[in-house]
Structures
1.
Amino acid sequence: MDNRTKDTLIAWSFLAPALAVLAGFGIFPIGYAFYVSLHQWRIRKGEYIGFDHYLRALGEPGFLVWFIAGLVLLWCACRVYRSLRDRQGGGYLPILIAAGLGLPALWLSLDQGLGGLLETGDHRLYNGLKITLFYALGTIPIQLGISMLLAYLLFKSLRAKGVFRILLFLPYVTPVIASAVVFRTIFSPHPSSVANRFWALLGFENCRWLYESKSVVGLFLRALDISTYPAWVDSWFPSLALVSIVLYNIWVYIGYDTVILLAGLSAIPQHYYEAAEIDGASPWQVFRNITLPLVSPTLFFLSMVAVIGTFKAFNHIYIMRTPGARDSVDVLSIAIFDLIFEFHNAGYAAAMAFVLFIAILALTLVQNRVLGKRVFYGD
């Protein structure tokens, strides 16, 4: 046995316990959930039905094929654009060719594919995915932006940094059930609630907050005395109840992200800033060309964790949801929970859970491929 083979066997022997734990507590539950989804499983195991649950949830297979085909063609258009851009060195020709390929692919995927899936698939699945997407888009950019600003201020010359670190981290370590109940009281529709009192100080009428299922855009139009607007406004914009929950999530995770970003900022060598000061760089130039690139690995990590976390969100949403606005705040995790504990349909819930797992995995891979290239890891 040569030394290389011996070293490989030693390495695998050290990794074996960790891989066994990963297989037992990570891979096995996923595989078992897939097994459950293939059966008519309620209180106990029923008959084998194959992929019927997936077809019931996703919709007609033909529309699914069109949707996947459109995405594949769109990916091919992106590859063609990159290849032509590298050969041509820029210009309008790569853009025109990519647009000629990409626009039909986008139409095929959205109109022929997704449109049919929305009509023939389960409303709970697609409504849950839509609300989850609203929740992620409303939370992650604002959360990371405010956290970056706070971390940068703390990193510079703000006094009592230790006190501010503790205060910012308190929402994250507070039990979710306690803080969510407090926020449910703050966003109560009662005129004496904290949110309505603050709203009254700004000169606005009382809002129903967590009990309001109408979209924020629709409420804004009504405030402008525009009572007639398309029905899709309330369907394709987040409700006021969901916005209230988004504010809670931002409040909780700002401190966590700030502390992590502060650690990343502290790891930046000071001689970069000293050289920039000697060269006469402005504060914005220093932030854009030194701070942001060197802290990009930390931002990338936090964005990955935030995407996964928002798509798995459950606890605080379940506590803050109200009967009048459930359809506008129930993310897919809550829809899966209701299928198990209200309708006792574990097989169908497992199929939806596996669809959510695939969606999270796909988003993570796309995010890693698209944003990972923009991360600066040093020389």
Note: Residues 51-121 form one domain.
2.
Amino acid sequence: MSALTNVYINRIAAFLPNAPVSNEQMEQVLGMVGGTPSRVRKMILRSNAIKTRHYAIDPQTREATHSSTELAVEAIKGLIAQGMDVNEVSCLACGTSYPDQIMPGQGVMVHGLIPNAPPYEVLTAAGVCIAGMAAMKHAYNSVRTGEHLSAIAVASETASAVMRGEHFQAEIEQRQLEDAKPEIGFSKDFLRWMLSDGAGAVQLSNKPNKHGLSFKIHWIDLISYANEMPVCMYAGAEILDNKFIGWKNVSKQECDKQSMMAVKQDVKLLNENIVRCTVENALLRLINKYNLKAENIDYFLPHYSSGFFRDKLLEGLKNINFEIPQEKWFTNLESKGNTGSASIYIILQEFLATYPLQAGQKVLCYIPESGRFSSCFMLLEVVDGN
């Protein structure tokens, strides 16, 4: 068996579709549900601290401008523009929360659109926010073991495709028949004002850049607490009579009435458990596993879904004696929005482009997922090839 090799992030690219959409423009672009303004929109936006985001929707015609696959390819084109040779790559790993189709997998659809790409090993990772990091870990391990010299990891989301107001029309009509208020439940409406679109990609190699900065990946660690936690965030399913039922087990009519394909979240379950599971429990493991010390972390890049969780995250770090001062934190949630599995890629791209990084600095990335409570941490070190 060959010895394991170091792995470096040598290029990072992000792609955000169309012009930024302000809080005031959101409902016009996404469309009202049942022709009525949302009662919770302003409350959610005050809490999540997001001011602008991007949608793959033409704001004038409301036609889709990009699929999730196309967003991923645009991010990869960003790597190519930075000098990546597609023929030097032999592995492609793609992550997304909500692919454009059930099959084929997102990965092969992306592969098919990369200009002049040769045959690749291709993997598709599904899930929620962790999907992007599951893809990156596969790419990382493929290079680390020596099976591939260079790999691409990419993540993309088009949450807007399932959040359009018209997609809830069957549910609204059913509620009107039942003489109920013509509005969707909070678990669905909440996420319409939280999620947005974008993609990010990285090129991993077994050698750092000869000139300029690279990130050496020390480790990527993922953990799931599904053995003890119920479903919290989901799509293509519904909880009926305390049973979790997938779309394949109901009629199309019932699926439409329940807006089963919409993304939903149990906000109470989220608030009560996300920090405990994905920060305190997950990070305590790594402190012991890697002899991790807070004072050795120069920057902290957290993907939290809402500004509501910023102080709660800090409190969770304090609870396990791993406080990282907030002046060391970087996130672009306020301007780029919550792009799910692509968020950490988009954060990394802006971080590398804007911060005066120095060789040897350590960067800790944190990516939680509320699907059934999973967590990922990644430790990077700045390497300067100059």
Note: The chain has a mean pLDDT of 95.
